[in-house]
Amino acid sequence: MDKIVILTGAGVSAESGLGTFRDAGGVWTQYDLEEVATPEGFAKNPGLVHDFYNARRENCKNKAPNAAHDALARLEREFTGDLMLVTQNVDDLHERAGCQNVVHMHGELMRARCALCDHRYDAPLVMGVADPCPACERGPTRPDIVWFGEMPFFMDDIYVALSAADLFVSIGTSGSVYPAAGFVQIADAAGADTLELNLEPSLGISDFAQARQGPATQIVPEWVAEILG
């Protein structure tokens, strides 16, 4: 086995205290997504959108990577083949665990970009409506996040990797958000083995050749240990 593509979702960070999209009482349930996670919402009320992501940024900086993040960082360091780690998460816990090459298909909470010139830069902890772009000195500036209705990042690179993979592994995802939910079908069609690691079966579990259930902090380190021998 020379080429592995891994997709991680909110379930990887849940045990670090970052709630998943569907958690009852979680941060997403307290807001209208049309208002805080769409281009239209940002155009209508950028202050509200910045307040939402400022709160998420503050929450994220106080969390720490868990054993699942650590195990994937170990895999990146020690696996001798090609490894692509794709995440739907916007947090930086993979990086803080030591991962060097994370593909953030939905953007990064700790990054910002200019909506005018598309310059990307490290976000301040608190962003505001009047913040100028460091490059063009205009704006508006926004979180470097893929909102609903926008195209995820790096899709061409991801599809190339999936089509060449020997193994595709989905970790901590619900299997309900596209295009990521369709990655398993692309990998399977290209002849890759497929594995789901999840707390409970996802909506797309029938598309996987193998599946294991349990807390990410338990089953991910176990799987990584097996791969590394």
From TrEMBL:
Quick check: keyword NAD in the entry?
Answer: yes
Cofactor list: Zn(2+)
In the record, which residues are listed under signal peptide? none
| Reaction(s) catalysed by this chain's protein | N(6)-succinyl-L-lysyl-[protein] + NAD(+) + H2O = 2''-O-succinyl-ADP-D-ribose + nicotinamide + L-lysyl-[protein]; N(6)-acetyl-L-lysyl-[protein] + NAD(+) + H2O = 2''-O-acetyl-ADP-D-ribose + nicotinamide + L-lysyl-[protein]
Domain of life of the native organism: Bacteria
Cofactor, free-text remark:
Binds 1 zinc ion per subunit.
Task: Name the active site residues.
Answer: 106 (proton acceptor)
Q: Indicate where this protein resides in the cell.
A: Cytoplasm
Top-level EC class as recorded in UniProt: transferase
List, for all copies, the residue spans of the domain called Deacetylase sirtuin-type.
Answer: 1-229
User: What does the function comment of this entry state?
Assistant: NAD-dependent lysine deacetylase and desuccinylase that specifically removes acetyl and succinyl groups on target proteins. Modulates the activities of several proteins which are inactive in their acylated form.
Designated name of the protein: NAD-dependent protein deacylase
Q: Which organism is it from?
A: Actibacterium atlanticum
